[in-house]
Amino acid sequence: MRETPILLTPGEAAGRLLPLLEAGASVPLRVTGNSMVPFLRDRRDLVFLRAPRFLPYQPGDILLFRRAGGQLVLHRLRKVRGDGTLLLNGDGQTWLETASQEQVLAVVEHIRRDDGPPFSPRRMDQRLLQRLWGALIPFRRPLLRLLGRLSRLRA
């Protein structure tokens, strides 16, 4: 029998997430928004988060970080600069943004789609796909439009 996790939405996460992460818990969070399409889908996917002190991050990982304005965001780490600044990018975006390491709250440890089994975003096939997708940043806009049309046709 599968245990049903307590699901947090980003709105709830701000107050409840940090104590759970600091205690070492793997915290489930329902994905909202489209900045990580096509790898993560709005309200379909569930990510399990772990504090960076329990799961050190590396380029290619998906991080939960707090923007300067307070917004919690899931984006992929593209590069760590020599001064420690992080370059992040949503998989559904064509631009990079920066954050400090202090802004990182969690690392995605596992992803679960619908009711499927959890899988690691560090799995070899996932790493290969994200590297390929990262190389396609200049072509993402038309590719995402095409994926959106195909998705609407399928529905």
List the helices and strands and how they pair.
Elements lengths: L9 H13 L4 E4 L14 E6 L11 E5 L5 E9 L5 E4 L7 E3 L4 E10 L10 H12 L4 H15 L1
Antiparallel strand pairs: 1-2, 2-7, 3-4, 3-7, 4-5, 5-6
Verbal overview:
With 155 residues, the chain is an alpha+beta fold. The protein is built from 3 helices and 7 strands; from the N terminus they run αβββββββαα. 26% of the residues lie in helices and 26% in strands. A 7-stranded antiparallel beta sheet has the order 1-2-7-3-4-5-6, with helices on one face. A hairpin with a 5-residue loop joins β4 (72-80) and β5 (86-89). Residues 1-5 have low confidence and may be disordered.
Report the average pLDDT across residues: 88
Q: What is the strand content?
A: 25-35%
Morphology call: globular
Order of helices and strands: HEEEEEEEHH
Give the tags.
single chain; 155 residues; alpha+beta; 7-stranded antiparallel sheet; 26% helix
Short overview:
With 155 residues, the protein is α+β, with helices and mostly antiparallel strands. The protein is 26% helix and 26% strand.
